[in-house]
Amino acid sequence: MSVKCRLLEGLALFPKDMSPKWRVHVFKQAFSAQIGKLENTAMTSFPTLLLHLGPNANHLVHDLISPVIDDRSREVQLSLANNVGILACVVCRKAVLRYKSDGLKSPFYESFEIQCLSCDNLKDEQSNNASKSRPNLVDPNMFVPYLTLLSSDDTAIKKSIIESLKRMFGHIGVRAKSSTIVSMLDTALDVLVDPDYNIRVSFR
Fold first, then answer.
1. The pLDDT of residue 50 is above 50
2. Is the pLDDT of residue 155 over 60?
3. Which of 2, 99, 127, 199 to pair with 12, CA 20 to 30 A apart?
């Protein structure tokens, strides 16, 4: 199983034009495998895959990730909660792949991580002013389903999705006239009255 997981991580790093349909098919099979560890790896590697495939592949969030939201596996739900924020960064095209600060690792692909020019206040090293340009706003409907994770009974899952909210809402145009956004905000703000003190503190 570890070999399959490492292969998924490696496939996510391939350039855009290197067998994109086949790689998407492999990820689709991994998401539907009903094997926790494989699904978890597919989820953690998916933002990297989407980053390389480009904006025309944003529909894969709905096609591949949305069906996994109802997965009752704690490992899969925790992975979803951890990655939905950075996924929003990728969808709005402000994400970049960078070396981790702690240097090279083995295998080599573990030396990379996704960061956001907006959320992480990064400077664009390619001097194309991408970091100063207005990011493409994310369709809020794409991320509504993930807020169901806020109703989880698992404290770790709740804390993870709360941590992802900043990135998610940072790429959604907050408008009072949008019933979808108002509903999302209401759901998120319910955390302020959560019976668990630690959850309330995490949100603040």
1. yes
2. yes
3. 127
